[in-house]
Amino acid sequence: MGGERIALLFPGQGSQAVGMGRDLAERFPAARAVFQEADDALGFALSRLMWDGPAEELTLTANAQPALLAHSAAVWAVLRDADLDVVCAAGHSLGEFSAYHAAGSLSFADAVRTVRRRGELMLESGAARPGTMAAVLGLDDEVVEGVCREASADGSVVVPANFNTPGQVVVSGDTAAVERVGPMLVSAGAKKVQPLTVSGAFHSPLMKVAEAGLQAQLESVEFRDPAFAVISNVTAQAVTEAEEARTLLIDQLTSPVRWTQSVQTMLQMGAERFLEVGAGKVLTGMLKRIDRAAEGRGAAVGTAEALEALMNAGAR
Fold first, then answer.
1. Of 27, 50, 144, 184, which residue is most buried, by most CB within 10 angstroms?
2. Do 186 and 105 fall within a single domain?
3. Are 68 and 95 in contact (CB under 8 A)?
4. How far is 214 from 97, CA to CA, in rounded Å?
5. CATH number, domain at 302?
6. Residues 108 and 140 occupy one common structural domain
7. How many domains does the chain have?
8. Does the reported pTM lie above 0.90?
9. To 5 degrees, how large is the angle CA 78–CA 80–CA 85?
10. Tens digits of residue pLDDT in 248-302
11. Over the stretch 174-191, which tens digit does the pLDDT of each residue have?
């Protein structure tokens, strides 16, 4: 990588797809070992679900979360021997757990069991208090926040859940409030408000019932200080201590993902190159919309072909 200062990006839910990781297992023994460890740790063949589907089952929150973490961990198992100068990492929602695993805070077995539990808790929260989410395009963050406050009424709430890029915010909350806020956002100038197919109102107060369960799970595993800074979704600031990380991962359930600010923080920390470690290339695509300084600096390395190309480039 020519001595460049690297920031690692780890994808979240929505990037899963049937077939994910199969080529890694076929090409790299280290990746194959990660998938086997996931199956052993969870007590069922997660790898078979990842590779063969069905898609409806893979997309379930309690399956998608460990699948995405396993894919990222498999890529990292190969990449970590590439002598990269990693200055920081960040993950989008679920991806933050992948980031802490890569930074050495969580063993893989503990990480995959933790995100499986997180997915179960989030699904249970969604059943206990049904909610939904919608993507809002073309409005400033502050405008979305203001309209959400205005639309929260009659005991139902809607809040910003993901600040993904300038002009792209996801809102989350009670179904009635999310349905109510859509026309209000369009009246405020939104180009589009797109309902999302989700099993709950993630990153909103509706997830509060999941906090105790996630706290218990995180307290049951060994959590070490990260070897490199991980940028928190909640604060968009660097985290270097285990206890702060654990607290913020619990807060993350009900707090918005501040992704735009997180990327800006990584640039301020001197990141020269961004590697998206895992499934898809959603986060790489967001980079140029977040900051011109990041345009052209990202690469998605979730496939065997992309991983080999990166490592061959580094060897020259």
1. 50
2. no
3. yes
4. 12
5. 3.40.366.10
6. no
7. 2
8. yes
9. 140
10. 999 999 999 999 999 999 999 999 999 999 999 999 999 989 998 888 899 999 9
11. 999 999 999 999 999 999
Q: Is 273 helix (H, G, I), strand (E, B) or coil?
A: strand
Nearest CA to 76 out of 316, 232, 310 is that of: 310
* Catalytic residue (one of 15, 93, 105, 125): 93
Burial degree of 106 (CB within 10 A; 0-12, 13-18, 19+): buried
Among residues 182, 199, 216, which one ends one of the domains? 199
Annotated catalytic residue within 172, 203, 204, 255: 203
- One domain for residues 58 and 106: yes
Residue 93 annotated among the catalytic residues of the structure:
yes
C-alpha 201/C-alpha 210 separation (Å) is: 12
Name the pLDDT band for 52 (thresholds 50, 70, 90). Answer: very high
Q: Is 272 exposed, middle or buried (0-12, 13-18, 19+ CB in 10 A)?
A: middle
Look up 92 and say whether it is catalytic: no
